[in-house]
Amino acid sequence: MQAIEQLCSNLNAGKENNMTKWECPCGYVYDPEEGDTENGISAGTAFEDLPEDWVCPKCGAQKDFFEPVD
User: What is the pLDDT of residues 11-25, one digit of tens each?
Assistant: First the structure.
């Protein structure tokens, strides 16, 4: 039972990390809790799970240019 609790705890910790906001150099902040619904990205989508061809909706920068927000 303890192993299952530890596994669940680890999974929950990973979900928290996946909800990190990411900022583009232009100032746009991708918030996973909001998603990018205007471009087909559902709320709850972690930055890491965005399609590789997703770009900043404000300036068109690729994901590589984004930095995590503390």
Answer: 444 444 589 999 999
